[in-house]
Amino acid sequence: MFKLPDLPYGYDTLSPTVSETTMRTHHDKHHRKYVDTLNQILANQGRHPGSLEDVVKAAFADGDKKLANNAGQAWNHGFFWESMAPAATPPDEAFTAAIQAFGGEQALKKAFTEEGVGHFGSGWVWVVASNGAIEVISTHDGEPAIVKEGRTPLIVCDLWEHAYYLDYKQDRAGFLDKWWDGVANWAFASRQYAASQGKGEGYRYPPPMAQAA
Ligand code: MN3
Fold it and tell me: From the CB of residue 212, how many other CB atoms can be counted at a distance below 10 Å?
């Protein structure tokens, strides 16, 4: 059984960029539903996995669509909560250098928002590391960047309408602009970047709880 991880900050602390109402609905309803469905599927299949990362990779490799969607969405939201912070968290030296190599912070923001706005339908927009360089990619529906060969996710924003509709209506561009400037967690992205270089541990979803006897 995987659990729904608590938010690493209060529900109201990302306001006004993301409202308390959006955070409560998004975490307590949407994320919980993905985790509950994931646990139901695993129970039905009689599986007791060691990590959600293993479940995600196996489900995508096997083409087990329902499991892939729900495991992917459970993982993506865990990563997404860490990708935000209530107060500014500047990038560290190594990640700052990677951003400079990309063309600078404004170039990265432009690439990220354009990728997110141009992404048709639901999905996720990511900054990822690949061989030390950073790239912007998007994935469809529930696909996590950890299934993309050779890439380490650094930060993600949710492009599903439930992430922004209450606060921004249909204005995904406005949401991404405010999100980048207001709540994106560059300290977290820096730790992920370091992990992609073999320094320290990258993000892992909380391991499954022990089965009740
Ligand atoms: Mn979502």
Answer: 5
Query: Given the structure tokens 């249909």, which residue do they identify?
Result: 170
CA of 160 to the centre of ligand 1 (A): 6
Name the residue type at position 15.
Answer: S
Residue 55 token pair:
């479940």
Q: How far is CA 19 from each of CA 24, 95, 109, 196, rounded to the nearest angstrom?
A: 9, 29, 22, 32
Measure the CA–CA gap between 191 and 197, rounded to whole angstroms.
Answer: 10
Residue 161 CA to ligand 1 center (angstroms) comes to 8
pLDDT in tens, 39-58: 999 999 999 999 999 999 99
CA 124 / ligand 1 centre spacing (Å): 9
**What pTM, to 2 d.p., does this model score?**
0.97
Looking at residue 202, what DSSP letter applies?
-
CA of 128 relative to ligand 1 center, distance in Å? 19
159 CA distance to ligand 1 centroid (A)?
7
- Bridge partners, residue 153, by sequence: 128
